[in-house]
Amino acid sequence: MQQTIAIVGLGYVGLPLAHAFAKKGYRVIGYDVNEERISTLKNNKDWTGELAESQLKEVEIEFGTNPEVIKEADIVIVALPTPVDEGNRPDLTILKAGTTTVGQNLKSGATVVFESTVYPGVTEDICGPILEKESGGKNFKLGYSPERVNPGDKEHTITKITKVVAGEDEETTDSLCDLYESIIEAGVYRASSIKVAEMYKAIENAQRDLNIAYINEIAKLCNKLDISTKDVLDAAGSKWNFLPFKPGLVGGHCIGVDPYYLVELARDKDTMMRLIESARDTNSEMADYVAGQIVNELSSPSENSVLILGTTFKEDVPDMRNSQNMKVVDALKNKGCSVDTDDPYNKRCQTDENSYDAIALLVPHREYLDMSLDELLKPLKEGGVFYDLKSVLDKKEIEEGGYRYLGL
């Protein structure tokens, strides 16, 4: 008999997971507290852009906001966000609330799998006791399989990325490996314990944060020396083992957040994560640095106007979570600039010809890259500044057009 799977949380992780299971013939229940989200999904619309209308139409998923449907599930997969608070400390409020709801509607003998990024111990030492209490001591099993979704990536989709899986015991791990192997084309990796799986996920994103911070510091030094960061990295990349990281703004729900979970855990264990904390400081300061680069090229910031192209946290996605590009906007305004923003996934801006002293391409969405250079530069005043954060355009061509070119 085919298992019934309930997915709790239908965001960037939960919805593609629900689709993958439904496509394989499982009975899938999609639960979310957001009524508007459920309403749009029932109409085959995904505002995250992860699934097309045709993909939603091809499967049967029982979407709803009534938590009692969880009682019918043999497997409950919790895919809820784990942000940080204003002090950059782990905020498990949403996860705890969701776990409480699951516990209150748990079927005896069910397995509860958590996919949220957490620090080691959260699944077994925090979520487990909540389930125990709220279910009234019902029999259940715990599992953990951290998400590896890359928002907006149509190549490395959820079924094409190796899935790390762990259960509270060998039997649970066996059954979860079988479950995920039924949908994951890339296969699964069997972790030795839930805590190992939790730790691996946290360090994965922290490693990227560290590497980007290193390149951001190199970019700052290159700017001091008046040499092109892109040229330096292109030269370094001629060696086979040079890691191809690029400077930029680190936003989103993962890389800019998850390292803080390790920092907090280290504090609780009376130790320190100096490199991780330093990297977080470096990357958190980059929005101000970018704004400063732009302002330094303007004659009088209080009288200058800037057009920001791209406000989402990365290319070709509508995700605004922890967008550092909006912090650049705020920093420019604080420095006296008049700022307009344009983003094909967020809010468009009507622009006039020759109306801005500077244009900053912060997020090179495909729509911008498909535009001709003349069209892209049309709103920029003659002799104005074009700031190319990720150095994706031709500096020489822009400068030959009579503009000043600047990049990180």
Tell me about this structure.
The protein contains 15 helices and 13 strands. By secondary structure, it is of the alpha/beta class. The strands form two sheets. The protein has an eight-stranded mixed β-sheet, sandwiched between helices. β4, α4 (93-104) and β5 (110-114) form a beta-alpha-beta unit. α4 runs parallel beside α5, α7 packs across α10 and α11 (286-296) packs across α12.
Neighbour order of strands in the largest sheet: 3-2-1-4-5-6-7-8
| Weakly predicted, low-confidence segments | none
Helix-strand topology string: EHEHHEEHEHEEHEHHHHHEHEEHHEHE
Could you say which overall geometry the principal axes of the C-alpha atoms support? elongated
